[in-house]
Amino acid sequence: MLQTRVDSGLDGVIVADTVMSEVDGEEGRLVVRGHNLQELVSSRGFEGVAALLWEGYAEGGGDEAAVRKGMADARVRAFADVPKLLAATAGLTPVEGLRVGLGMLPDSERLPHQYLVCGALPVFLAALLNARKKLSPIAPDPSLTTAQDLLRMIRGQRAGEVFEKGLDAYLATVADHGFNASTFTARVVASTHAGLISAVLAALCALKGPLHGGAPGPVLDMLDDIGEASRAEAWFDDAFAKGTTLMGFGHRIYKVRDPRADVLKNTVATLPSTAGRLAYAVEVERGAIAALRRHKPGRRLDTNVEYYTALLLEALDVPREAFTALFAVGRAAGWCAHVFEQEKGGRIIRPQSNYVGPRPS
Known about the structure:
The chain is mainly α. The protein has helices at 37-43, 46-54, 64-79, 82-88, 94-104, 113-132, 146-155, 161-173, 181-190, 196-207, 216-226, 232-242, 259-269, 278-295, 305-315, 323-345, and strands spanning 21-24, 29-32, 35-36. Helix 5 (94-104) runs antiparallel to helix 10 (196-207) and helix 13 runs parallel beside helix 15.
């Protein structure tokens, strides 16, 4: 017999204790292992955030230098699998290609699996993007950080420091965000003791869904359609009249502004004015907020992380079809952390259901 009846989306249901992150939707705050997001991103790179998330749970946890070396060594290891990956992924999207790549990683690999996964994803993504341009894959450089090396492998040469820092800030910003759909998926699989690689692969499959990881690309489609800032408010008024979903605005958890949006907006502002569409996007954002206030006066809808993610990744010359796959490169650090936590103290996750079908006579 069911003891508790909950919303079908598990809204408001606490399913576990965690030390990883707290998403405060009412105050618009994200805390990652005791640090406010803004402070964390400004003081640590992606490898530093991963080290913090893994502290007390895995090899290298708490040691940024060790994590950086572990990821670098894993990138070199992963490059050996690139020919096999490319042979198996012709015609697939980048995120579908990553799904194949993770599926090829063996559980028997002696390299710590958190490094194996977090090293393979950027190498596989760069190789997949180069293959789409009919270019040969570029070998990783273990002397670089994940962000530096990923941009180099995508572009064919080192990017400017401001662009490398921009990608590093993005990866750090998206590394963890509570019990979202993909993270919860990872924990469900981890609770069966299937292993980290299987859990991360399952999380990637959840992220592939357009309701979870697919919003940044359509933000750029929206900006393209609006065309110029002076048309923004009229465009949004028309969108509301047609019932069109606004990309980059509103969030299921945050009732005020998404704190990740401010971090990424500040990151985009550090880039050269010729690298993106920041001034235009700021005007469009104002038009959208004004329209939201008019059409949804009882709701506190605001800009979310996808809006400035789209602008940042566009400025970094990342193709739109790779946005979700790149998100996975950053979020994998958090997935691994939740797998460690689940394996250490959690039981197998096995909720009840309420049968509403016919019964035998």
